[in-house]
Every structure is written in C-alpha cells, then in structure tokens.
Amino acid sequence: MFYQKNYEEVLTDLESSENGLSQEKAKQLLEKHGYNELQEKDKVPVWKLFLESFKDPLVIILLIAAIVQIALGETMESLIIFAVIILNSILGVVQTKKAESSLDSLKALSAPNAKVIREGNKLTIPAKELVPGDVVILEAGDYVPADGRLIEAQTLKCVEGMLTGESEPVLKHTDVIEDESPLGDQKNMVFSGSMVVYGRGTFVTTGTGMNSEMGKIAGLLENADSKLTPLQQNIESFSKKLGVGITLLALLIFGIQVGKAFIMGTGNMGEVVLSSFMFAVAIAVAAIPEALSSIMTIVLAVGTNNMAKKQAIIRKLPAVETLGSAKVICTDKTGTLTQNKMTVVDLYMNGTEPEVMNSAESYESNAHSRLLTLCSVLCNDSAIGSEGQEIGDPTETALINFANKNGLNYEDIRNENPRVEELPFDSDRKLMTTVNKTRDGYFMFTKGAPDIIFSRSKYVLINGEKKELTEEIKQQFRAQNEGFSNRALRVLAFTYKEVEEGFSPSIEDEDDLTLIGLLAMIDPPRAEVIDAVAEAKEAGIKTVMITGDHKTTAAAIAREIGIMEDGDLALTGQELDALTEEELDEKLEKITVYARVSPENKIRIVRAWQKKDCVSAMTGDGVNDAPALKQADIGIGMGSGTDVAKDASDMVLVDDNFASIVNAVEVGRTVYSNIKKSITYLFAGNFGAIIAILFAVFANWTNPFTALQLLFINLVNDSLPAIALGFEPTERGTMKRAPRPANEGILADGTMQRVVFRGIVIGIVTIIAQYIGMQVSPEFGVAMAFTTLIFARTLQTIASRSNVDPAVKIGFFSNKYVIGAMVVCFLLYSIVLIPAVRPIFSIPLAFGMQELGICIGLALISTLVMEVGKIFIRKSVK
Ligand code: ATP
Questions:
Q1: pLDDT per residue as tens digits for the range 668-688
Q2: Cation-transporting P-type ATPase N-terminal domain location, by residue (predicted)?
Q3: pTM for the full model?
Q4: Are 314 and 651 in contact (CB under 8 A)?
C-alpha cells in the first residue's frame, strides 16, 4: 500500500521522480491508463429517442387512425401521414441531439485543470490528462484531481467528506503509516474529488479515473440532470394547460362535425366519423407545441455559446435567463475591476528616507532597508519564470519586481536566506508568515494588511533601531496608510521577529511584531470597466464593489470607475456587522463599496438584496466565497480562482473581467427575448390556423385544411423558423431597458398581445383566401387556405424578428438562419405543387400561378399589417 511506504519508494515504484515524469512517458502512460475521468453512463441512444417520440398519446391516436384509413382503402394519404410523423420524429431527435451536444461542449469548456511538474517544469494541464507517476501541486481552493501519496505538505488540510463522510478538514502529513488504515486515516495520501481548504502540498499520483478511490465507489457517473430553467418550467406547465385546451377544442370540432353530418344525414356516417376524427386529431397534433422544449434548449445553447465567446462560461443553464433579470452585481475589486497588475510606487519607513531603498548598496549598508527587502522578498511565494513571465499572486510579484528594479536579485536573496517554516496567506487572516535562516540568525517575517499588522505589532524600526511602538508612532503609520489609500494605492505592511532555531510558528505567534515599513502599490482599473459600469447603470443594474482591501483605497477606485457617486456610502465589514437588519435594509441601496469584508458579510449582502426581490449576481474566487456564490442568484466564479469557487458558481469568467459580466447580461437578455420571439411565432401561427378552422365550422364551410395538410404545416413551420429566431442578434435598446421582473410570466410584456394580434391577422387572411377559392370550388378554397397559411406563417418570421424595429430597419440579411429557414419552408411547400403530389395534398391541378399569386399577396399583406401593429403594441406595453 502506498501509504505504508515512504514517498521516495512510491516515486521509484511509479518510475517517477520529484521532477515529475517526462512528457513522453506521460503520453505513453495516458495511452495505457486512459483519461483520468469517471466513465459516464451511456446517453439515450438515437433509436430510443426516436421511439420515445411515439409515446405521445396523440401520435399514437393518429397512427391508429391512419391504419384504419389504410384498411378503408385511403392508402396514399395514410402513407404520407406516416411519412410526416416519422419526419417530425426525426426532426425531434435531431433537435434533442443538437441540444445535448451543445451542452456537452460547454461542459468541456469548464473542465478542471491540474498543476503538475513534468521534466522539472511547472505546467497547467487538463486534469483528465493526469497519469500515475505525475507530480501534482495543490493549493488552498484546489480540487484534488487524482489519488496520490504526498511528497510535501505545508499545513495542508483537505475535506474528504464525499469519501469518508467526515466533514471536518483533515490535516495531512508525509510520514509513513505502518499500520493498515482506513481511507480517513491515510493522512499521507490525498484522494480524487476531495478539496484543499488550507495550505499547500505536492503529491505523486497513484490512481486516476476509475482506479481512484472515488472511481471505485462511484462506479459510473450519472449523467447530470439537465435542470430546466425557470422559463422552461413555466412553458412546460403552460404547454400542458394549452394541450388540454386544444384537445377539448378538437373534441368540440369533432362533435360539431359529426353532429352536423348526422342532422343533415349526409354521406356515409362511418366515413364522416373517421375523417372528422382524423381532422380533430390533426388539429391537436398541429396546434400543441410539442417541440417547444427542445427548441428552447437549442436557443439557450446558442446563447451560452455566444456567452462563451464573450469569456463567460455558463455552468448551469438557468443562469442564462437569470442573468437577463439581474438587478445588482456585487463584484470583487482586485483583478475583476482592476488589472491586478501591481507595481510598487511608494514606501514609508518611519524615520528612514524612502530613497535609501532604491539601491543595492542600501541592502548591504542600511539594516532598516535590508529588513524591508528581506521581508518583502522572502515572505513571498511568487517568482519570475525563465521567460520573464510572472508566476504567483500579483501583489507578491510586485514586491520581487521592486527588489529587482533596485538592482537586487530576488533569487540570490532567497538562496542566501532559505525558508524553513511558513504560514500561508489566507484572506480571513490577511497575513502571511515565513521563518528564514539569515546570516544574522533565524527571523520570522510577517507581511499583510496594515490595520491588522498595526494591531499585532509591539515594536517599530526607527532609523534602523528597534523601539517601542507608541500610540503616537502608530498614528503616524495610520495617517501614512490613509494618505496612500486616498491615492487608490494598495498598502502592505512588513514586520519581523527574531526567533530561535527550530521555531515553528502558529497563528498565535503572529504577535509582538516589529514594524519595518509600508510599501504602496498601484493597481490600475481595467480600461473597459468604466464603460461597462456605465452600461450596467443604463440597463438598470447597480454595481456594488466588495473587496478585502482597505476602505479608503476601495472608495478611491470605486469613484474613479464610476461605481461610487456623491451621496453613496462605503462600509467596512465591521461597520456592516454593527448594522441591524432594519438599518441595513434602509441603507442598502446607498452602499456601493464594502471593504475589508469577510465571507459571511458577502452572504449577508446578497441576502439583503434578495429580500428586496432583486436578482443578484456575486463574484468570488476563494474557497471561502463558495457559500456566498451558492446563495447568490447568479454565482460568478473567476477563471483564475479556485476550483471550489468555480464549482459553486453558475457562471465562470474566463478573463476575470467585470466587463464580461455586463456582456453576459446583454446576451442573457437577448436569449430571453429571442425565446419569446420563437414562442410568439409558434403560438400566433397555431392560433391563426385555429381561427380559420373555427370560422369554417361555424360558417358551415368545408374544413379549410385536410388532416394531412395540418400535419404538413406543422412539419414546415413549427421548428426551423422558430429555431432560426433564436439566432437573432441583440436588439436595439436591449441594454437601455430596466431588468425584467424575475417572476414575469411568459405572456407578459406584450407577448400575449402579439400572439392574439398576429393570430387574428393570419386567421383573417386565411379565411379570405378560402372565400376567394370557394368562388371556384370548395377544393380551391382548401388549396388556397392551405397555401396562404403556410406563406403567412413563413413570412411571419420576418415580423417576429424584432419587437421594436420594422424588418426593413434591422436589415433582411442580418440573420442568415432566418433566410435559410424561410427558403426551406418555401422549398417544402413547392413539393406539394408537383403534379403527381398534388392529389395527395388536395391541391387541384387547375390551381395555377394566379391563385398562388393571390395567396402570396394575402400573406404579404398580413406581414405588413403585423409590422404596423408593432408600433401600437409597443406603445400599449410601455
Ligand atoms: P478582492 O478585491 O478581490 O477581495 P483583495 O486582494 O483585496 O481582493 P484578499 O485577497 O482577501 O482581497 O486580501 C485581503 C487583504 O490581505 C489585502 O487587502 C491585503 O492587505 C492583504 N494581502 C493580500 N495579498 C497578500 C499577501 N500575498 N500576503 C499578505 N497579505 C496580503
């Protein structure tokens, strides 16, 4: 067992070393062991999906009716009905598969990475490419990507609840464990799927994929349920009600037709019953929007792809919609609003002139200056790579860059003063400590947030001499810190403490420190953020800054970016803690900056906004941010953040950039409005057909369509144009409107009016067409009604493209999918005009260009009327 051996032996067993595997070896091993992932259960196969579409009771009824018709000799029409049903099912399968594959590709985008050492170099690779023997680096916030034996563990703590059921973090070590032990006691091992909540470490991979402990117990990974979005749920329940309504209507029409035939004693009663029944079922099949759900998934997937292009990866589909109704964005400062490119621009050492720092000589000649350099370079995990690339926390790279700029070499300094102990930085403590062996003995160096450091310091260096830190001197430091912060600078304070050999620090030892000085750095705002904040504001979205940084620094940057305006408040976490619920409720809208916050503060801020029914987005990157990310309506993880934070989020920002959130909101709003456009298009078309049918029933005309025609219209018009509308680009004014209320129904905001209006227009032109045709013969009436309905519905796509602008204004070619879908519709229709096919679709051979021209003319008029109607509907909605 690996835990019973020392790590050198494990490395040898796995033919690896502390420098990791070679790339070549890793490649061979990957071929041998396969990807480091749990196998997924198979997807529903295509044939099963296809068969499932025949589970719909209406389809079954239709099939039975068609079979009966065959028995009665109406072979051709029934065969075509079969063909249409099968085509519809195929289309359904294609749609489902397309929706599935787009979701899969999104999943791939958010797949985790692992930091490995190969051939002595630190690399980041996709976690699925890990192989046994790989040396992997772990830091707080990482998910452990595979099982492994620890080589190094610095206060490394892992939560392994999913394997052991134990929710407390386990402190890891690297010693050999002699006795046979259960997983929970194998403390020199780490296991795939657990997470690092503290410290850091390195391990050699011993088990990957299905050979990891997780793989053994989990067996096959269930395909994650594709959870329905609120709008999908809304539509699903609405469709059900609509289905019942339409079925009742179809029954009514059936009853009326049979009743009429009975009273009038016309024809063969059996035939009448059968054809009326077929017709009623066809109405139900055509009018019930069964494809709606998969059409919506596709439109949502189109949206998520667009977001991915704009650096926002959606992890949970509902977020696409929720984003569209976001009212407040609570965002981190560092890296999200600012560039996270820190540069030291000023310093303060009480009594010592700042200039002495700026040379290599002062490192040798001035003890005060040397200690500041030592603390800033040694109590620091960052590095400059061989190609000059900065590795590690930008706050820390700024410090080594500063030393290098002053003519020193940070690597030499680190080699001369090796680190023997450390307490890693964590954002709750806001401190970091190392113990180093220097030429003057052992020193503990602590750096961190100035206010924390001031409260932990007992002494201060003045002119290189250690003195008692009096209240007066502390005040000078505070004033200096405040001055830096007002210039929007981030300030760190540096301290030391002389210690004995063998001293091992704990958090309690970060006390009685000797204050050396302050370094102030600038972190300029990202250029695009100022516009993004303004755009969000115009879209009715409030931006709130939440940061671990000092209040004055935060407020200064918030003002520069446009987040904080006159009359707004900046609060520290402590001040927030002091507010009662009522006080917070009252002030909430005014508070635009929260500084020095704790993770609990973040949760409280989100809850306060949610209490006011405001859909809130919240960014986060650390382990501690996970609960707040989960609490927020839209948790946004940072691409550079920890796996734990990403896992808790609904969306991940690849570039950490605030502007990408605002872009994502725009896409979210577009997706929502496109879905509504598809829905309006579908419902209005179906409604138009029903109006024409009902009119004919009551006017005692022939049915305007045959059962087959209805099914054909369903095939032609019910999917492609609706999907194409999902590709509509963002409409003018999308980001100038207030966010949509979260619980708004699908028919709100003018959708109902549009469906009714367009449905009536389509219905009327179809009735007129039938009337004109009837002057020749009832068959002509049917042919003309059928043709007009197809054309009016197809052309409706043009009117559906925008709720704001007329079609001419948005440009006919700005959505090529709509053009494509319409061309397909026309081509499909042209099939029924082929002389040999005409009888099946009840189109008389005499139906010529003139009739076709009238139908197209009527359809064009309907589109024009819809365009004019836009103006009135828009006014009535606003
Ligand atoms: P954000 O704005 O994203 O919350 P932040 O960097 O201000 O970012 P934290 O990373 O939680 O927030 O840091 C909190 C405080 O801890 C900082 O303001 C700084 O004073 C101090 N600090 C940051 N990085 C280090 C570090 N590497 N070592 C010591 N102290 C640090």
A1: 999 999 999 999 999 999 999
A2: 1-74
A3: 0.80
A4: yes
